[in-house]
Amino acid sequence: MSLDNAALTIFGDSISGNCLKVKFTADLLGLPYDWVEISVLAKETRTAEFLGLNPAGQVPVVRLADSSVLAQSNAIILHLAEGSNLIPASAYDRALMYQWLFWEQYSHEPAIAVLRFQRLYLQTPDSEIAPALIEKSEKALTLMQNHLAAREYFAGDALTLADIALVAYTRFAHDAKLDLARWPAVKAWVRRIENDLNIEHAGG
Ligand SMILES: N[C@@H](CCC(=O)N[C@@H](CS)C(=O)NCC(=O)O)C(=O)O
Q1: Pocket of ligand 1 contains residue 26 by CB under 6 Å
Q2: pLDDT tier at 2, thresholds 50, 70, 90
Q3: Which domains does the chain have, with CATH numbers?
Q4: pLDDT averaged over the chain?
Q5: Of residues 62, 28, 61, the one with CA closest to residue 199
Q6: Among residues 154, 131, 76, 140, which one has the least CA distance to residue 110?
Q7: Is the pTM of this model over 0.90?
Q8: Is 204 in the pocket of ligand 1 (CB under 6 A)?
Q9: Measuring from atom 2 of ligand 1, which residue has the nearest CA?
Q10: Which atom of ligand 1 lies at the shortest distance from residue 56's CA?
């Protein structure tokens, strides 16, 4: 793990949606950064050096120009995007963006990211996957489908941090064996946001 003097250093694992949302935000805003790869699977979040950086033992973490450190993906993207058009000027739309950011962390990521991790990385057999985890994932996608049926973006009528946070794991739904064909508005929105972010389609 290198600690140099770049204005922004992102410590992240490239297989993690939480980390990729920080990368997507920095890239879109044109912020230069150093990326330090930290492998969760190799337990690099458990070393004494990393725990010194983030005692919670999780990525993403960023080190800012003044050497201060910030964890929690949504706190990081909010900080990076401060003053940009990724945060709506309208107070209501801004609150809607927060609504979806909080929902993402409580009801979406703990279902879809965990299901993806179990199925893709731990190769957990279907018989050992908790049905409640699948139900929670499907419920989250259905809520998104209903919201997106008549809208192009989650908060207001333009791309915001809510879309970036939510697309991070939704675009990997197929890794969790969730077929987005069942949620067509979500599928179309994923392509729209990948296009807005100028990133490759994740597949599925
Ligand atoms: N709520 C946190 C979740 C961070 C998180 O779960 N990070 C995972 C990778 S996606 C991690 O570092 N896991 C390592 C571990 O728990 O040992 C965020 O949004 O940043």
Answers
A1: no
A2: very low
A3: 9-80 (3.40.30.10), 91-197 (1.20.1050.10)
A4: 96
A5: 28
A6: 140
A7: yes
A8: no
A9: 72
A10: 16
